[in-house]
Amino acid sequence: MTACHEPASVLIERLSNGETTSLDLTEACLSEIASHDGAVGAFLHVACDSARQAAESIDRRRAAGEPLGRLAGLPVAVKDVLVTRDQPTTCGSRMLEGWIPPYDAHTVEKLRDADAVLIGKTNMDEFAMGSTTENSAFGPTRTPWQLDCVAGGSSGGSAAAVSAGFAPLAVGSDTGGSIRQPASFCGVVGLKPTYGRVSRYGLVAYASSLDQVGPFARDVTGAALLLEVLAGHDRRDGTSVDQPVPSYGEQLEQPVEGLRIGICPEHFGEGLDPEVRETVERALDVYRSLGAAVEEIALPHARFAVACYYLVAPSEASSNLARYDGIHYGRRTDDHDGLIEMYSNSRGAAFGTEVKRRIMLGTYALSAGYYDAYYLKAQKVRRLIQQDYSQAFADVDVIASPVAPTPAVRLGQLTDDPLQMYLADTYTISANLAGLPGISIPAGFSQDGRPIGLQLLANSFTEDRLLRAAAMHERETDWHLATPTLSGDASS
Amino acid sequence: MTSPTTIIGLEVHVQLQTRTKIFCGCANRFNPDEPNVQTCPVCLGLPGALPVMNRRALELSVRAGLALSGTIADLTKWDRKQYYYPDLPKAYQISQYDLPFCQGGHLDVDVEQDDGEIESRRIRLIRVHLEEDAGKNLHDESGRGGESRVDLNRAGTPLLEIVSEPDIGSATEARRYLEEIRLLMIYLGVSDCNMQEGSLRCDANVNLEIPTADDESIRTPIVEVKNLNSFRGVEAALIHEIARQQQEFEQCGGVYTDTAKQTRGWDADRGVTFAQRGKEEASDYRYFPDPDLLPVSFSDEWIELQRAELCEPPADRRRRFVSELELSDYDAGVLVDQGRETADYFEAVATACGDAKRAANWVTQDVLRELNERQETIGNFPIDAQGLATLLGMITSGELTTRSGREVFSSLMDRKGGDGSIAERIANIVEECGLSAVADSGALETVIDAVISRNEKAAEDFRGGKDAAIGKLIGEVMREAGGADPNVVRETLIARLRP
Questions:
Q1: Is there a contact between A323 and B44 if contact means CB atoms under 8 Å apart?
Q2: Which superfamily does A3-265+392-481 belong to?
Q3: Could you report the per-residue pLDDT of B219-230, keeping only the tens digit for each?
Q4: DSSP assignment letter at A94
């Protein structure tokens, strides 16, 4: 275990009292990456030079007694779906290979303003489409706990980076579970905020009405701290909500008085791995032991969530990804005769199979004559799902469930069966359709040592309560303290 | 058998004169000489960039909708119209599909008929919506097959689309409708409607209903003529297209193999429309609501605020100039069609000098001539409304003759008369040039007495009832008195000879 395996709050403490420097911390992370990322595959780009420069500059400013940001000197990894000025942003796609954005995403600006050290860009399923990071054009990310298993996805690189000790904090994005599910597979904390809580400006769009940026951390405190930095109104995103950002970290120690936890019987039915079920039930017992009430709630339309999602998300994706036409930036094939061929050959060559599959699904669903039956109908179902949740949250503070039906799957296990892959999103997707915040926290391991997470969902803009509820479990357990052992790990 | 009926509907595109583009902070300015300098991640359609609605564009749009008597929607939203083209960097245009911000409405247009009579025609509107303009593809026109280039300076310019019902009955009516829309938009401050710069563009849908021998009629297939960028172009293209459809009808005997709507372009140089694309290439735009832009609902209070910003529309102003100020239709038209500032200038002169007809004569002739010669706008005219009113007042009161007034006018134009107030400058010019009318009745009467005594015969003839005889007397008095007002001379002579 190295310094990088320590939780963010501990590292910030050490930085501020002079026990360590940002440069030391950055070098430790870079060294871990150099030793082990070949096996894990968390990063698409490691910003060694600029990270060292930023670390040195922050150390100098600290020495000079200048005021510093919330994350001063802390290495943070950023999913390659967020644009970074002067650093490549590929979205895990050949289409954007070599493209250097001329601007920073809002969240990247926030990280820079907080004096974080941007250590690199993390691997992901191409354009965030996938649940295993196997759809990356640049190779998969593996969970540091078992290198023959996937890290989950689509933010697999960010989850694995935190788990492997490559960075104490990482940023991901979640459209149907893409933060929570890899957090579960990698044994870290991952939070998807309320839709509108964090600006999407500079987040390369997959499904605009579902996408949300959120934090990964080793513990709930770290997630709360990073969320505080990322959240807030941004005039450049019309769907960003102008609401003050609470001090999530300050309230964390305070348990939710008379916590009421809802569980939905359908979440514990067919298809759920017994070890995952046991893990979630054990977590519920922890809450019961703290005096929480666990009660059944009804989410009658939850069973339509996957179908609904796979109409809404591909429809928006088909439109959002139309701009990659080889004209203005990105990959353009030389093999073409005329404009139409330039479009189709460039897109045909540069997009991977899953991206093409979803573009075709969405194009079909939006076509004249099908729009009403598919996209419009899906939006109506989406509203029913939202209503289910607002009714449920009248009675409970949070809803607990598994994050995914299984722990991390082996590489290649689901790649030939897209439908099975889609169904694995069943527990996470509703939160995106309803715009709700959700968190995945470490809750146990399978017998063979793969992490298993617990998902908690809460009502819109109640991240404070969600984090407090998550912290209650964390205080009673030590799952979040476990760290994976990577082969050849000299420090372990 | 009656003659064919022409059926025309226009889709007019008006660029809004906002400071910034519709979804980003880039300057909204015509700038073809420096391609791609007015761009940012948003209007370049870069990955991750998001649109944010320009409030000013919404305000101007709603004002236009209100001025066109349309119904402003309670709730409006934006949709993506998806197609691939190099000048469209997102591969979709943010437009409005099923919930435009304004529905219905109409515009009344005065159209001169074949018999010279002016008839007011009401053109109903289907809808008005707000969308973003695309960029511009620049092709190598040297014939050497060079690369095409894309300029995105124009991408994201707010664009109003005004869609009429097929209520327009002739090419002339179409031109008049377009002229009246242009004038209204300029009056409202919604657009500069500069047609050379493409701020006002139009597509026309046209077909004919041709009566047949059996009292039935056949409609020719609808043709959309694209990219008509001048008034003359609209009229000429439609005249050509109407004749072409008539001819085609006669050739095929009204039996069409393909009745689908056809898109044609307009070749202004050759004066013909030409086929662009047919049905087989008809697009499915896959419209769907843009998830990046929230729907907008307008409160009644906000709509009333926009209504309060409206000005008197040009058509009402023409009518008022005729009914209240007793101008001719022609003068009212000339003044109003010059634009709001000129009409305001005229009205200020008319009110201040109390003689609207004289004000109209001077503004339509002297002022407009000078503006034309100097290629100036009324805002930079050297004589302000108060100055011209003062001058015209002096003519009305007889202090100056019309001819002297014109001399003072041109001296004022040359910025003569010193640095004082306009009244002082006029006084100086009158003094320097000896233009003062002989308003001193004593002096005038001395001259009149002398002229009568020299022209006893003419004086006798006039006393005896021969009215024409007074002309000679007036002429001599005018010559002798120099600067006298002919009306005053006439009246004084009459009073003297026929007391």
A1: no
A2: Amidase signature (AS) domain (3.90.1300.10)
A3: 999 999 998 999
A4: G
